[in-house]
TrEMBL record:
Segments forming domain Enoyl reductase (ER): 8-343
Family of this protein: Belongs to the zinc-containing alcohol dehydrogenase family.
Pfam assignment, any one: ADH_zinc_N
InterPro entries: ADH-like_C (IPR013149), ADH-like_N (IPR013154), ADH_Zn_CS (IPR002328), ER (IPR020843), GroES-like_sf (IPR011032), NAD(P)-bd_dom_sf (IPR036291)
Record carries keyword Magnesium: no
Upper lineage: Bacteria, Bacillati, Actinomycetota, Actinomycetes, Propionibacteriales
Molecular function per GO: oxidoreductase activity; zinc ion binding
Keywords: Metal-binding, Oxidoreductase, Zinc
Protein name: Alcohol dehydrogenase
């Protein structure tokens, strides 16, 4: 089969590799019907994630069809159409028993495209299949389901829920990439009074408004002053960091009111200064985290019921064998306007017209 292989910082190749095989009784082999590229994959290619070995097949988000299962798998069978989650779960360790699957101690967590070969391939081996893939309802398309592999549960759990967004809150989301846009959608489930999005790119500012943001601020706005003016001098109740650079994290700590919450979602590849000399007195809560995907079944049910509108999030579509072109477009999002790219195999039977 062919797969996208990481060859060291700045180097990748789409080439022939051996087909995956069952290695454990709880494994499943999945034919990849639809896959996407994550900002984390770009971080890996920059060398920001040194735990990824050279020769690793990248990718941790996919929709596919079960080809084979190990003898211990009971919940799915060959022929089932499934969502492949970005997080795998042994289901037995202390963290899994707390539904904190991202911290799995039993060989799971974020392993696909990180510690084991991932989903940007024609086939993928998924460990702990009964707890790491989800059968898809007939009415949910491959393209829509793809958003539940990582983006939506990450924005929901690490952003909206960790930030404890509530009715009447003022929420500032810094970054209008895929995670930031998904955060808008999931924050709206809790009826905040205002969602303010900060991003420098006009195309992403428009996307934020399309997804339900009330206001967007660009680089020409003094964001801290504007947020304080809109909130009677108080600041935001919740700030969600969805970029992963020092400047955006610091902005989140500056717009928040005393007693507010900063939820960091972005993947940081460089140190960030935490100004405790200013923050210690403000009763501020700062959270970080890796998605656990415990919310995936709930989000899947909402998606099937039409309760998770994500208009225009996937902006570019490719064939699976156009992986290199997809990476080129996604990595130059400022020029191409890409938000999320999706790649489909020749065998994919997507349900969307």
């Amino acid at each position: 089969m062919k797969a996208l292989v990481y060859n060291g910082p700045g180097q990748r190749s789409w080439r022939e590799v051996p087909n995956p095989v069952i290695q454990d009784p709880e494994d499943a082999i999945v034919r990849v019907d639809a896959v996407t590229i994550c900002g984390t994959d770009l971080h890996i290619l920059k060398g920001d994630v040194p735990t990824v070995d050279r020769g690793r097949i990248l990718g941790h988000e996919a929709v596919g069809t079960i080809l084979e299962v190990g003898p211990a798998v009971r919940g799915v069978a060959p022929g089932d159409r499934v969502l492949v989650s970005c997080i795998s779960s042994c289901g037995r360790c202390e963290y899994c028993r707390e539904s904190r699957y991202g911290q799995c101690l039993g060989g799971g967590g974020w392993i696909l495209g990180h510690l084991i070969d991932g989903t940007q391939a024609e086939q993928v081996r998924v460990p702990f299949a009964d707890r790491s893939v989800y059968r898809l309802p007939d009415g949910v398309s491959n393209e829509s389901a793809l958003l539940l592999a990582d983006i939506l549960p990450t924005a929901f759990e690490v952003g909206t829920l960790a930030g404890r967004v509530g009715p009447g809150d003022t929420v500032v989301i810094v970054g209008a990439g895929p995670i930031g846009l998904a955060a808008i959608t999931t924050c709206r489930l809790f009826s905040p009074s205002s969602i303010i999005v900060v991003d420098s790119a006009p195309a992403r500012q428009k996307a934020a408004l399309d997804h339900g943001a009330d206001l967007v601020f660009g680089p020409d706005v003094d964001v801290v002053a504007a947020v304080k003016e809109l909130t009677g001098g108080l600041g935001a109740n919740v700030a969600i960091e969805a970029v992963g650079v020092p400047e955006t994290f610091e902005l989140c700590t500056q717009v928040i009111r005393p007693g507010g919450r900063v939820a960091n979602v972005g993947v940081h590849g460089a140190p960030v200064t935490l100004h405790l000399e200013e923050l210690w007195i403000k009763d501020i809560t700062i959270t970080t985290g890796l998605v656990g995907t415990s919310s995936t079944p709930r989000l899947l049910a909402m998606l099937a019921a039409g309760r998770l509108p994500m208009p225009g999030l996937i902006t570019h579509r490719f064939g699976l064998d156009e992986m290199q072109d997809a990476y080129d477009v996604f990595s130059r999002a400022g020029e191409t306007g890409a938000l999320k790219v999706a790649l489909f195999s020749d065998e994919s039977k997507d349900l969307e017209a």
